[in-house]
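The following block was generated as part of the benchmark described in Methods. Ligand: flavin-adenine dinucleotide.
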Amino acid sequence: MKSIQKPIVIVGAGFAGMTVALNLKNLYPSLPILVVDSESNFIFKPLMYEVLSKEIRSWEATPKFANIFSDAGITFLRNCLTNISFKENILEFSDELKLSYKYLVICTGSIPNSYLIKGVDENCYFFNDFHDLNKLETFLKESQKTVLHKKLFIVGGGPSGIELACKIKDLFKDQFEINVIEKSNELLYKNKIFNREEAEKALEKRKIKVLLNSIVKEVSENNISICNEDGITILDKDIVIWTAGVKPNLSYLETDDLIKKDGRILVNNKLQIENNNDCFAIGDISIISGMEDLPITAQVAMQEGNHLAKNIGLLIQGKDLLPFEFQDNGEMISLGIGEASISALGITLSGKLAFEARRLIYASKLPDITESLKSASSWIIQKKSIFKKFLKKDNLN
Ligand SMILES: Cc1cc2nc3c(=O)[nH]c(=O)nc-3n(C[C@H](O)[C@H](O)[C@H](O)COP(=O)(O)OP(=O)(O)OC[C@H]3O[C@@H](n4cnc5c(N)ncnc54)[C@H](O)[C@@H]3O)c2cc1C
């Protein structure tokens, strides 16, 4: 491998950044790699529901970056990116630090999208990171000290909305009357039919109300306004949890140089940013030209991270880069405490068995993320042989 003087800088160490960093180090140990993240801990977001329900402890889903990267021999810096000069190859950070790079990977993920709907930012709870989780947990716990049947609305009938609704119902029983609001005419419309049907059963069993074809117009301190075929209805609310969509986390980018699509950075199928061939964007913040329909998931982010590690190696060696191809390995949804639904590789599974399989699949994924997380996790349990067929390394998200 040709040596390079300036580092490969990876900004954002979530699923995409973590995967590209660890794979690059593995493939090319002598390359100088610097990983920067504004937080001190990795968040295994698909397990946030289990942290809320105390099925796992929060440290199991949030290992420290410093430990992960020092174990791997990669330099880690905690700092917040505030600007990029693509012309000069310079990054600027919140403490005025400036860094130059040889190759740049940006993967700063996504943040909730309130679609500029009145009152959403001010009056809703979110569930995108651990700050959101802690805030929601505090509210839910406080509510236990007061009357039953508090009115809880979850906006968004995608996986996050459904998974949260089921967990909260199982945790808090009649403390909350839960309503899921969805603008389209079905729940989980982007998901596999089997998971959709299992989710519908799980909601019905828990008597969680679903309002389809309903659009939220405004959220105020005490009310939520919903528009559907009957017109606008204003309902009392105690809490609204907003899971209706995400947008790329790109507020630090002051430059207009980048081409964007649906707000996300447009990259070519080699994952390069258009007109900046030494810069790459992967994970939730980017969209691949010609592959616009890819889901915004950890599964995609990790596959992109794997692929990019190989492509950066090829670029340094002056070889042609390879086009990214997505392999759909299926999907898993948690449906309440101790239950889940899985649809993958022609196999479907639901209920308690699916819950155990989901646990094991994530446990088997942990070494992909980090050995230190694997050793820290009490999720590694003894029943692996039962689920052998699910446990292939790249299966599922
Ligand atoms: C509750 C929840 C459940 C989910 N469940 C699933 C699931 O079951 N399956 C699935 O496939 N996907 C799931 N997803 C989606 C999945 O988590 C995301 O698609 C995935 O995390 C995207 O990876 P990423 O690397 O692009 O971003 P992230 O993993 O979000 O990482 C972004 C990183 O960038 C850092 N960062 C942000 N801004 C800056 C800055 N300015 N400077 C420095 N660092 C910065 C952040 O601290 C973070 O570490 C879930 C998401 C949520 C919120």
